[in-house]
Design goal:
Rossmann fold, 7 strands, seven-stranded parallel beta sheet
């Protein structure tokens, strides 16, 4: 039996309409999983690409800027798909400003989505799994700024460093319950969140010079790590933060 095979499993992926979440969702579908996509905008392209792979696709509309919709999201996911086996906490946002000028509103908005919602969504899914007497796989999407400070991203750095720590905390508490909690740390990827960086010729050149692979990542570059952490191949991994960064941290 292929230990990377996800057939018969259902993955809930937040922020799957574009970018990294889309790349992860499609990768999981390629490995056999059905997909529940959660987000504000209609994930039409992701739905089309998952359906083309012969997998089922369910969309749950929710604004994950607060914890308010979490209970409904879980209820709708189970009603539509009948089960959840994998949770990918990918939805996130970034606000950029100098630390001297960083606003409380930009701090709170990023921390709410990137850290608070991710934690309470994981809690809600894990409570269901524990009540059902079963385990599952949770993948948190963190960042290079879980390891480094960065610049002009105070709340993003804090949230992604916090989520890496929460990943380890949840692994400590839930490993014995059969729940694997791990994280993927993407490097510099070509997504909507990095439009400003790539448009800045100086910053773009500096970033590329630091990446041994010599290019920005593509969303599909995350698929392999996501499938690995969602599958039986990672059954003895708990609390790991796996960089997928083109060698950025090795430089």
């Amino acid at each position: 039996m292929d230990i990377f095979n996800l057939e018969g499993q259902v993955a809930l992926v937040t922020g799957a309409n574009t970018g990294l979440g889309q790349g992860i969702a499609i990768g999981l579908a390629e490995a056999g999983a059905d997909i529940v996509a959660v987000g504000r905008s209609a994930p039409d392209e992701t739905a089309r690409r998952v359906a083309a792979l012969g997998r089922k696709f369910y969309a749950v509309s929710a604004d994950l800027s607060s914890t308010e919709p979490i209970g409904r999201v879980i209820a709708e996911a189970y009603a539509a798909a009948g089960r959840l086996d994998i949770l990918v906490n990918n939805a996130g946002m970034i606000r950029r400003a100098e630390a001297l000028a960083f606003s409380e509103a930009d701090w709170d908005a990023v921390m709410e989505t990137n850290l608070k919602v991710a934690f309470f969504l994981a809690q809600a899914v894990a409570r269901r799994w524990v009540a059902d007497g079963r385990g599952g796989k949770i993948l948190n999407v963190v960042s290079m700024l879980s390891f480094q400070g960065g610049v002009r991203t105070a709340s993003y750095t804090a949230s992604k460093s916090g989520l890496a720590g929460v990943t380890k905390l949840l692994a400590n508490e839930w490993a014995a319950k059969g729940i694997n909690v791990n994280a993927i740390a993407p490097g510099y990827f070509a997504t909507n969140n990095t439009d400003a960086l790539r448009a800045d010729k100086g910053r773009n050149q500096d970033i590329l010079a630091r990446i041994p692979a010599g290019r920005w990542g593509k969303p599909e570059d995350l698929a392999g790590a996501a499938v690995f952490l969602a599958s039986r191949a990672s059954d003895y991994m708990h609390g790991a933060v796996v960089p997928v960064d083109g060698g950025w941290l090795a430089r």
